[in-house]
Write a structure and sequence with these properties.
Strand content of chain A: under 5%
Strand order of the largest sheet of chain A: 1-2
Oligomer: homodimer
Largest sheet of chain A: 2 strands, antiparallel
Number of helices of chain A: 10
Structural class of chain A: mainly alpha
Largest interface: A-B, 89 and 89 residues
């Protein structure tokens, strides 16, 4: 297909496609005439992956290049590639080492939910500790106290995600779905959390203020 | 307190505090000597709120100013302020109007979970439709099919959030917790979702490849 069709299939503007090729995130098309280049289904898949990482995940180009190198390395088996990717996807910003108390709080949560085996040094554990530190600085300890509700919901979503991955047929498809699902799944969940907020807060706070005959506490 | 203590209490560098004052996001301290300015507990609270919006929520300064104006408007009752804030927090980027099919898919999910009363025109409904459109473009329809699992988890988290809000004692505290909790709660959930991913994918994919005597399908 020509670049225009590739653009239409993926929603990525042609100028952006050319930029990704220059940056080495996408291989160039096959030159079939001196002024015409042809792209295939492999380009569609790779472009979707790049778009998810750059636009939805807001990852820097250098980080995207690093992630793609993992996907493209045939020596990596699936389990090892998934491990490397989960580390890479966690460090969207280089957090300073978390406070020991925050790391301890993160490990306590992880321990209660069977996630502690990866240890306190894993970047994702540090990422959780980092959020806990922010909650503390923002005066929102109440949310740390409710971590188990969040953890239970996270397990439901994660089980769904892994079932989706396991339904894929080949190694590259598993890795691509894992990467895309990780970054866009956050936005998918966040959008629904906000819809639920609106419905629940409308019931609770409106009832308190305007409708004393309505029951607010369910 | 002096600006150094305000900085230590909130984790915001003094240069950044001065920048927020210049941008009108934080009122200046009280001048107690010609070369000394004093800040109070109100500044600590407001600075935490600004930090959550700017750093964790990555919202532009103009949007933060708009949100603070809502919090500070005494004519707004709680329910109306929550409604305006939920709209403002949803539009982190100005999405083009979603495709009708995507909006229909969003409304169908909302309908099944009791969130459809706000209608298809609500910015949060459009935000969900926008994510669905992205999932489709990225070839991840499998995740749309699993929306109900996500929605069930979103309800658990949202109920926890609203209980936390309802435990607050005054209007400003409710609004501040709502804003901070919305932006940082996404990161809190995402960190735990990733921990669950690692644990579950380790069990499923490692077992398949390396440990045939281990059970992978539970």
């Amino acid at each position: 297909m020509r670049i225009g069709e590739l653009s239409a299939r993926t929603g990525v503007p042609t100028a952006t496609i050319k930029y990704y090729v220059r940056e080495g995130l996408l291989s160039g098309g096959e030159r079939i005439r001196h002024n015409q280049v042809s792209y295939g289904e492999g380009h569609v898949r790779r472009l979707r992956l790049v778009r998810a990482l750059v636009e939805t995940g807001s990852l820097p180009i250098a980080k995207v290049r690093e992630i793609l190198a993992e996907v493209d390395d045939p020596r990596r088996d699936l389990d090892s590639a998934l491990g490397v990717l989960s580390r890479a996807l966690g460090r969207t910003r280089e957090a300073a080492d978390p406070e020991p108390a925050d790391l301890e709080a993160a490990m306590a949560i992880a321990d209660r939910h069977g996630w502690a085996a990866m240890g306190a040094e894993h970047p994702q554990m540090k990422a959780l500790a980092d959020v806990i530190g922010t909650l503390r600085l923002l005066g929102l300890e109440a949310l740390i106290d409710r971590a188990d509700d969040y953890a239970g919901a996270a397990r439901i979503v994660a089980e769904t995600d892994i079932e989706m991955l396991a339904a894929q047929t080949d190694r590259d498809a598993v890795l691509e779905s894992m990467i895309i699902g990780t970054v866009i799944g956050d936005a998918f969940f966040a959008a629904m959390r906000r819809l639920a907020h609106i419905e629940l807060s409308g019931r609770r706070f409106k009832a308190h203020e305007n409708s004393p005959d309505d029951t607010a506490d369910d």
